[in-house]
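Q: What does the assembly look like in three dimensions?
Context provided by user:
Components: four
Sequences:
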Amino acid sequence: MKIPKPTDAELEILQVLWEHGANTVRFVNEHLNEKKETGYTTTLKLMQIMHGKEMLSRDDRNRTHIFDAAVKEDDIQKELLDKFLDATFRGSASKLVMHALGNSQTSKEELDQIRQLLDQLEGGK
Amino acid sequence: MKIPKPTDAELEILQVLWEHGANTVRFVNEHLNEKKETGYTTTLKLMQIMHGKEMLSRDDRNRTHIFDAAVKEDDIQKELLDKFLDATFRGSASKLVMHALGNSQTSKEELDQIRQLLDQLEGGK
DNA sequence: TTTTTGTTACGAAACATTTCGTAGATATAT
DNA sequence: ATATATCTACGAAATGTTTCGTAACAAAAA
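A: Here is the predicted structure of the complete assembly.
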């Protein structure tokens, strides 16, 4: 089964559902509105399209439908990252990593975690 | 001066120019064709649009124009990475880095370089 | 009961991006 | 000199994505 690449607007909706779990259109719409004014029916239409693509599941036993992400966060992140890495960094993961760490404020704990992963990877070299 | 976010097709053209330096439409088009069939005038039109946006410079002293990237690779990568990080990983750089290193085959030299950066970053914590 | 509010469905408009076709000019080959 | 190939310019079609408006119905409030 092929995972379709979500569009920008679809990804925003997936983020809300991944973060907060199954929810209504209204809930999702209100979250989106915190970042950017979005009409209710716009969000509804997108979620219906996503359901059509089997990107979202839907419980329609009650009048107010409950939607949930039907694709795994990790899978989508991996898919998008692969494409982004190629398109933007010509496949150089280290360049991307250097940029990412250079910019952001990442906690000591997270840096340690990355260091552990490095140890693990370099173990085999 | 505002850097406009390049579209996917525009980014592919920038990659060719960043990698190979100033060149003709034909050269760029032939490179793009290695990955995906693209009509000559399609590439031409895109490069004209990009020139209009000041994303490319153009030397039109001769009939065959020579185009070059007018935006810095690092700047565009930073801009795109920031947006990608927010949209896809909700801003968690460490999660992105773990994914990126987990997937790819990165050389020992590159891993060491990343480790150095970690040392440097953790120095201040 | 009647009105108001909230919900889904969905066509169509609006907008963004990519692709193509044609005209006109210049260079190159015959 | 003529034909052929190559190049730019650019409008417009094709495609993809997002937003909006309206209809139909159900629920809740007055």
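Follow-up: Chain B has two domains: 1-90, 92-125.
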